[in-house]
Amino acid sequence: MNARSRWLLISVGLGVLLNPLNSSMISVAIARLQNVYRLDFTEVSWIIFSFYIASAIAQPVMGKASDLFGRRKIFLAGLVVAFAASLAAPLSPSFGWLIVFRVVQSIGTSMMVSVGMAIVRVHITEKQASALSVMSIFLSGAAAIGPFIGGVLIHWWDWHGIFFVNIPIVAAGFLLASRTIPKDEPPAPALRNMSWRQWITMIDAPGILLFAAGLVALLAGLLSAKSSAHISFGHILTGGIGLIALVAFVRHELQASSPFIPVRTFAKYPEMTRINVEFILVNVLYYSLFFGLPSYLQMVRHVSEFHTGLLMLSLGLCSLAASPIAGRWIDKSGPGPALLLSAILMALGSVWIVTMNQSSPAISVCVALGAFGIGNGLNSVGMQAALFKSAPKEIIGVASGVFMTSRYLGTILSSLLLGIVMGDTFSAGGFRLLGVILSVIALLLVFMNWRQRMSKPLK
Questions:
Q1: Rounded to the nearest 5°, which phi and psi values hold at 354?
Q2: Rounded to two decimals, what is the model's pTM?
Q3: 187: left (phi over 0), alpha (psi -120 to 50) or beta
């Protein structure tokens, strides 16, 4: 790999890492934001919802937009948007404005994730597999160390630091990207001459609006009912509107020529559907701990942000260490054994959470984090391998898009679960109840993977 390719890889990596970094740093800041804005946990959880809903929508849309406007333009525009949002968010006059800037930040960082891999594939032709693995390290590494960086920044600089830290990264990324990413080729005449109606059809704007409106309304109805401790007509109406919008979304996607989420694919390929359902459950498990444990440590056990970040580092490091081992194991034995072991580890970690109390030593917390971290490392490789094995080659692009949507749905559901279980305040009892629920989900995953393994010889 020549020097120009290495600099291109670094410039793209600096942009790509911003999305996972900002989605993970916030886990340590939730307790602080709750105190600053005097919110209950249900309300502050929208800082998580907003980011992942925006990412789920923006990444596929910006991927399509890059075909029309050019990958370099979309990547550089994403850096500008992320810079503006990171500068404005710490100056937010209210929590509502913070949510707005968080959504803008999600859109900006998603613009880079959606085209970063494509830029590497197109412009780095030597040792391409190595280049793509480096991109994966940027993505997974940023997510792994995000809570630690967030803890350090909040300890020394308050919560504003988790936004300001993006500014030098964005500035360096823009300087390098503007110099190293080659200029875009002119779009094809068919794309260049598209009307605005054709553009709306291509990105499936009606489907996106129904998906976003339905999800937000349903979440708002459920969480507001939990927060107020009683169900009113307004809660039922809001939740009902959300359900109606989501049903309308599914009907629209079945008929759309270029659907935002290809619902027809699920019915046509049941094995791929099973893998995506498992992936949703895996992410519910992982992110419930990822976002729930820092708040438990800070609000129930009164651990500082800095030490919370240190403890959370064990989760990311175990995940990073397990991934390459999982790759070699899966190459030899297939994804089945690794996924079964992952489910067992997450079940053991969930049961361990139930046994924890306010006097449990730090090593006890690390045991649970280690089990989930190793499980996540096995899953990150195993689920991807299982997807490629189940999806026909001609729809692998569509399958990968659905797979990413499943990740975001799992993350959103984990935040919903935390909001419903914890309600107004984080408590030791609520955290143990969360452990019980996670144990049930993990045991379901164990059963699904065991059943899949047992059915193999019968085929």
A1: -60, -35
A2: 0.84
A3: beta
